[in-house]
UniProtKB/TrEMBL annotation, chain A:
<dbReference type="GO" id="GO:0061630">
    <property type="term" value="F:ubiquitin protein ligase activity"/>
</dbReference>
<dbReference type="Pfam" id="PF05773">
    <property type="entry name" value="RWD"/>
</dbReference>
<keyword id="KW-0862">Zinc</keyword>
<feature type="region of interest" description="Disordered">
    <location>
        <begin position="272"/>
        <end position="351"/>
    </location>
</feature>
<dbReference type="InterPro" id="IPR039133">
    <property type="entry name" value="RNF25"/>
</dbReference>
<dbReference type="InterPro" id="IPR001841">
    <property type="entry name" value="Znf_RING"/>
</dbReference>
<keyword id="KW-0863">Zinc-finger</keyword>
<feature type="domain" description="RING-type">
    <location>
        <begin position="123"/>
        <end position="203"/>
    </location>
</feature>
<feature type="compositionally biased region" description="Basic residues">
    <location>
        <begin position="327"/>
        <end position="339"/>
    </location>
</feature>
UniProtKB/TrEMBL annotation, chain B:
<dbReference type="Pfam" id="PF00179">
    <property type="entry name" value="UQ_con"/>
</dbReference>
<keyword id="KW-0833">Ubl conjugation pathway</keyword>
<feature type="active site" description="Glycyl thioester intermediate">
    <location>
        <position position="99"/>
    </location>
</feature>
<feature type="domain" description="UBC core">
    <location>
        <begin position="15"/>
        <end position="161"/>
    </location>
</feature>
<keyword id="KW-0808">Transferase</keyword>
<keyword id="KW-0547">Nucleotide-binding</keyword>
<dbReference type="GO" id="GO:0061631">
    <property type="term" value="F:ubiquitin conjugating enzyme activity"/>
</dbReference>
<keyword id="KW-0067">ATP-binding</keyword>
<comment type="function">
    <text>Accepts the ubiquitin from the E1 complex and catalyzes its covalent attachment to other proteins.</text>
</comment>
Length: 351, 161
């Protein structure tokens, strides 16, 4: 009997040696452990779509009785795959009946999970598939939330996020106009929510840092962004877009740095200054005044411009006279202002 | 203030249309148990028949849900009300308004018509008494100007029923 116990203890040691911190031993005899399993591709975080924690609990008759296998938690696995994973490991357990099988079961679990390492069916926001097997070209970029591994098209989740921000800006104290029950006070929540969000699927809290890089991606691909996202009243968009963009730029810089050093860092505020980052942003003054002003400005500027680019400035000139309203919209092209790439989105929508 | 009969005068956005068409196809293949939706030309308003689940207070009863989709669905929640006569339920007002958090504060764009229907049926099924909410008269009076339930500031007090 003691000999058997020793063998089992040695086996448990082997599991610990192989899995290190991923293995938590709750009981040494009879062995009961929790194993955190990742697919084999997990070294590349962007390639990881699933993970799981399984419990392996042997009885006193082990190995002459297969251990109990249970799924403690999982990310990215739909119910079907969860069930399949557990059933598969249990079956292996019965197969290996009477052998010392802990290491083998752990290996099987990792193996099986690696085969399941693909994102879950459809984007929960647009309901179109994330990965279409028939036509790779049709695939839109998608991303996953690190907190829960739920996947979304980048475009869809950014649209949703921007929507929430706009809502918050336009309606900071809630959405309703009148009360019938006393409403809860949201003020406290607002502060906390600034850098947090809830997954649309499971409501698990995530940090906005998780997908700031995606917001950038969409911003730099205006053609992919359907005009719809810009239908939110343009003026509102403009009012807050400058500060929003500065924030985005900062995140971009941080992310780049993180990629370089391959790890998470606290944003360093003193370095990584992007061009124009701290320039005072132009405020949106009443449109009429500024339009006049810029028209005059433009007319003063025109002669010199037309010397250099006669044809193009002439065209601009005529269209300006024909349609002063158009010119107002194009205010953002004012050559005095630094033209930044990340303004392109607003320009596109204004035109 | 919008009226409940025409809550969304604005047409559906392209994204909303795509998403609803997708939901419609999915509904036709796999409708939630106990619900029937007669497909019409109007994608923006669905009228759905609900059958009370067997073994509950509402067994063998049929009600009609009216679902109106806003321009920016699914970012915004749809407006969901019972057409008269609304079932007698502690969270359903006699004007058809439903006090259910997912239709208002707790809406998430990952929810679908189908998941809303399942929530409403489950709300009906767990009811232990056929009665109106305590503040029914006051609320309904307040809504006489045709206010949409989405403009109410709901206070969700009880998740048992």
């Amino acid at each position: 009997m003691a000999a058997k116990e020793e063998e089992v203890a040695a086996e448990l040691e082997a599991v610990q040696a192989v899995y290190g911190d991923d293995c938590v031993v709750l009981d040494s005899y009879p062995p009961h452990l929790h194993l955190h399993i990742n697919p084999r591709t997990a070294d590349v975080t962007s390639q990881q779509f699933v993970e799981a924690v399984i419990s392996i609990r042997a009885g006193s008759k082990y190995p002459n009785e297969s251990p109990q296998i249970n799924l403690i938690e999982s990310k990215g696995l739909d119910e079907e795959r969860q069930k399949f994973l557990v059933t598969y490991i249990r079956d292996k357990g019965s197969e290996l009946y009477s052998c010392l099988m802990l290491v083998a079961l752990c290996e099987e679990a990792v193996e099986r999970l690696s085969l399941m390492n693909h994102p879950d069916g459809d984007c929960p926001l647009c309901l179109y598939s994330l990965v279409s097997e028939d036509d790779q070209n049709k695939n839109l970029p998608f991303m996953k939330l690190m907190s829960c591994f739920h996947c979304f098209h980048c475009e869809c989740i950014s649209r949703w996020w921007n929507w929430l921000q706009t809502e918050k800006k336009t309606n900071p104290s809630g959405s309703s106009s009148s009360t019938m029950h006393p409403a809860r006070d949201n003020d406290f929540k607002e502060d906390v929510e600034e850098n947090m969000g809830n997954c649309p699927v499971c409501r698990k809290v995530f940090h906005t840092k998780d997908f700031e890089h995606v917001l950038d991606l969409v911003g730099s691909l205006p053609s992919q962004l359907s005009s719809d996202a810009n239908e939110v009243e343009e003026s509102k968009n403009l009012v807050y877009s400058d500060s929003e963009n500065i924030r985005r730029q900062r995140f971009e810089a941080t992310l780049k740095l993180q990629q370089e050093i391959r790890g998470l860092i606290e944003p360093r505020r003193d370095v990584r200054i992007s061009p124009g980052m701290y320039l005072p942003q132009p405020t949106t003054t009443p449109a009429d005044v500024e339009t006049k002003e810029s028209n005059e400005q433009q007319q003063r500027d025109l002669p010199s411009a037309s010397e250099m680019h006669a044809s193009s400035s002439q065209r601009r000139n005529t269209s300006e006279h024909r349609n002063p309203g158009l010119w107002r919209k194009k205010r953002m092209h004012n050559p005095r202002k630094p033209v930044k790439q990340w303004i392109r989105k607003e320009n596109m929508s204004a035109e | 203030m919008t009226s409940s009969s025409a809550p969304s005068r604005k047409a559906l956005s392209k994204i909303a249309t795509n998403r609803l068409q997708k939901e419609l196809v999915e509904w036709q293949v796999n409708p939630p148990a106990g619900f029937k939706h007669k497909v019409t030309d109007n994608l923006q308003r669905w009228v759905i028949e609900v059958n009370g689940a067997p073994g509950t207070l509402y067994a063998n009863e049929t009600y009609q849900l009216q679902v109106d989709f806003p321009e920016h669905y699914p970012m915004e929640a749809p407006q969901v009300i019972f057409l008269p006569p609304a079932p007698l339920h502690p969270h359903i007002y006699s004007n058809g308004h439903i006090c259910l958090d997912i239709l208002y504060d707790s809406w998430s764009p990952a929810m679908t018509v189908s998941s809303i229907c399942i929530s409403i049926l489950s709300m009906l099924s767990s009811s232990t008494a056929k009665q109106r909410p305590a503040d029914n008269d006051r609320y309904v009076k307040n809504c006489r100007n045709g206010r949409s339930p989405k403009e109410t500031r709901w206070w969700f007090h009880d998740d048992k029923v």
